[in-house]
């Protein structure tokens, strides 16, 4: 508490500037979510410092962020169903709505006009106008059994589509918004048990959902959705004892490096390497714990991995060529997220239980800077504005 | 006066019984952080639920302490609820059940 007060005191003068907007570019900005405080920091990636703290975001545990095409506005998806539009240049909330009881992620459409939120409670997807946050469409997730399902793995795809998975019903759905507010919805059933998250490859062609209920992943070719879902890495942990999973892994498109994809195994302390030409398993890399995020440095040469509790004080770096762990770092307590600079020279890591963010040089693997933050979790840089699926 | 006070502690220990002793204040703070942050990753920071169900007192009203304790220590096979025994003693898990019964304190 004393530490928290001290932090607030130091940051007081900065926060007070919130009225005055900055005149500058936003290409090297980003946000750091402060999950317990219901706030975020607007950060400058080049100066490695904080510009603003923006509060009043509600419950932002498990929050994620997407950006407007002009990289000025961040849309923050909170756990409590809140959708908040934040102006990075003014450090201020432009608009906030609470659109459901419990939500988990969001996406922005290809043209930047629509923002979609995936909800646990009530299960479904709600779509809003990115300019006004006015409602556009409501897509309840009712599975074949007639029950409402939690929605996970929501991403944008080319052709003004949103793709998402139904955790309880084991379905993947594609909502096509080319005709505006009345989307055409395509349903792919029986993709596997309990899809828990999904990624879309950086080219926007393949949607891959990880399965919690079985060892394997479901793959949909978005050029040919009519072909349905195909199972890949089926039974990858067969014969091995399944270990408990204390935090659900995440899947994001940046796990792709060249023609290899790096994915977290579920219930195994391994990173799976998939050959993207054949979609077959190429290797498995033993790592320090249950992987949570597996991220390729933008040039594809290194893969960085963080872990679930009790191994969440470690981060491992894998060489994408030899598929070996080249370094185990201990950047702080409870490393929740990692975000690369768009050209990969630096990576930012959030150390939740140390109340700070550490910036690492990805070549020397040394700390370049640290920033104070209250229980930091997700870090999101504005370059995401121009990436399919982020 | 002093003698009485010690007697009370000894009595408390007897009732609570070795392994189930209350965690000390430092550990309590760690456990509260674990409950909010790490359990919160699935059950929500405010325990309202997420991937896992709500852990608010109303939601748990019809569950016994023993059932909650067993779920925390041994998990629920086939679901995302893992066994926390490797990270928690029985006394610590019991203390967490008490915190769940009390509800979030802020």
Describe the fold and architecture.
The complex is a heterodimer of chains A (390) and B (106). With 390 residues, chain A is mainly beta. Chain A is built from 1 helix and 32 strands. Chain A has one helix at residues 2-16; strands spanning 29-34, 39-44, 49-54, 64-67, 73-77, 82-87, 92-98, 102-108, 114-121, 123-129, 135-140, 151-157, 161-166, 171-176, 184-188, 195-200, 206-211, 217-221, 229-232, 256-257, 260-264, 270-275, 280-286, 291-296, 302-307, 315-319, 324-329, 335-340, 346-351, 356-361, 367-372, 376-381. In chain A, the strands form 8 sheets. In chain A, strands 3-2-1-32 form a 4-stranded antiparallel β-sheet. Chain A starts with a helix and ends in a 9-residue tail after the last strand. Mean pLDDT of chain A is 91; it is low at 1-18. Chain B has 106 residues and is mostly helical. Chain B has one domain (25-102): Cytochrome c-like domain (Cytochrome Bc1 Complex, Chain D, domain 2), CATH 1.10.760. Helix content of chain B is 58%, strand content 0%. Chain B is built from 5 helices and no strands. Chain B has helices at residues 2-16, 25-43, 57-60, 65-74, 90-102. The longest helix of chain B is centred in the first third of the chain and has 19 residues, at 25-43. The radius of gyration of chain B is 15 Å and the shape is globular. Chain B starts with a helix and ends with a helix. Mean pLDDT of chain B is 83; it is low at 1-18.
Task: Describe the secondary structure blueprint for this structure.
The complex is a heterodimer of chains A (390) and B (106).
Chain A: H1 2-16, E1 29-34, E2 39-44, E3 49-54, E4 64-67, E5 73-77, E6 82-87, E7 92-98, E8 102-108, E9 114-121, E10 123-129, E11 135-140, E12 151-157, E13 161-166, E14 171-176, E15 184-188, E16 195-200, E17 206-211, E18 217-221, E19 229-232, E20 256-257, E21 260-264, E22 270-275, E23 280-286, E24 291-296, E25 302-307, E26 315-319, E27 324-329, E28 335-340, E29 346-351, E30 356-361, E31 367-372, E32 376-381
Antiparallel strand pairs in A: 1-2, 1-32, 2-3, 4-5, 5-6, 6-7, 8-9, 9-10, 10-11, 12-13, 13-14, 14-15, 16-17, 17-18, 18-19, 20-21, 21-22, 22-23, 24-25, 25-26, 26-27, 28-29, 29-30, 30-31
Chain B: H1 2-16, H2 25-43, H3 57-60, H4 65-74, H5 90-102
């Amino acid at each position: 508490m004393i530490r928290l007060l001290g932090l607030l005191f130091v940051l007081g003068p900065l926060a007070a500037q919130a009225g005055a907007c900055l005149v500058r570019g936003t290409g090297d900005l980003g946000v750091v979510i402060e999950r317990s405080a219901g706030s975020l920091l607007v950060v400058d990636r080049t100066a490695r410092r904080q510009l603003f703290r923006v509060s009043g975001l509600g419950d932002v545990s498990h929050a994620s962020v997407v950006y407007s095409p002009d990289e000025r506005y961040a849309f923050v998806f909170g756990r409590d169903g809140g959708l908040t539009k934040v102006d990075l240049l003014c450090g201020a909330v432009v608009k906030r709505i609470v659109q459901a009881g419990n939500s988990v992620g969001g996406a922005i459409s290809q043209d930047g006009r629509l923002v979609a939120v995936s909800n646990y409670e009530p299960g479904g997807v709600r779509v809003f106008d990115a300019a006004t946050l006015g409602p556009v469409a409501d897509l309840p997730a009712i599975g074949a059994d007639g029950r409402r399902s939690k929605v996970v793995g929501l991403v944008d795809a080319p052709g003004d589509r949103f793709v998402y998975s139904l955790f309880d019903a084991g379905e993947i759905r594609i909502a096509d918004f080319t005709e505006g507010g009345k989307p055409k919805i395509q349903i792919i059933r029986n993709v596997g048990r309990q899809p828990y998250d999904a990624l879309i490859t950086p080219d926007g062609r393949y949607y891959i959902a990880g399965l919690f209920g079985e060892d394997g992943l479901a793959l949909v070719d978005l050029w040919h959705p009519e072909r349905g879902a195909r199972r890949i890495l089926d039974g990858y942990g067969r014969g091995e004892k399944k270990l408990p999973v204390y935090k659900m892994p995440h899947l994001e498109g940046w796990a792709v490096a060249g023609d290899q994809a790096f994915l977290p195994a579920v219930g195994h302390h391994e990173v799976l390497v998939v050959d993207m030409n054949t979609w077959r398993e190429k290797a498995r890399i033993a790592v320090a714990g249950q992987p949570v995020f597996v991220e390729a440095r933008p040039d594809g040469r290194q893969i960085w991995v963080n872990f679930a509790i009790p191994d969440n004080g470690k981060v491992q770096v894998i060489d994408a060529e030899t598929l070996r762990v080249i370094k185990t770092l201990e950047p702080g307590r409870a490393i929740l997220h990692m975000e690369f600079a768009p050209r990969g020279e630096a990576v930012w890591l959030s150390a939740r239980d140390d109340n700070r963010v550490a910036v690492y040089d990805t070549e020397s693997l040394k700390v370049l800077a640290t920033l104070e933050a209250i229980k930091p979790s997700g870090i999101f840089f504005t370059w995401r504005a121009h990436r399919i699926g982020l | 006066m002093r003698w009485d006070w010690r007697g009370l502690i000894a009595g408390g220990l007897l009732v609570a019984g070795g392994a189930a002793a209350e965690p000390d204040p430092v550990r309590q703070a760690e456990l509260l952080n674990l409950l909010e942050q790490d359990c919160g990753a699935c059950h929500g920071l405010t325990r309202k639920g997420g991937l896992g169900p709500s852990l608010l007192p109303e939601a748990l009203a019809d569950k016994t302490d023993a059932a909650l304790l067993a779920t925390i220590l041994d998990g629920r096979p086939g679901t995302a609820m893992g066994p926390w025994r490797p990270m928690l003693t029985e006394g610590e898990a019991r203390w967490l059940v008490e915190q769940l019964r009390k509800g979030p304190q802020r």
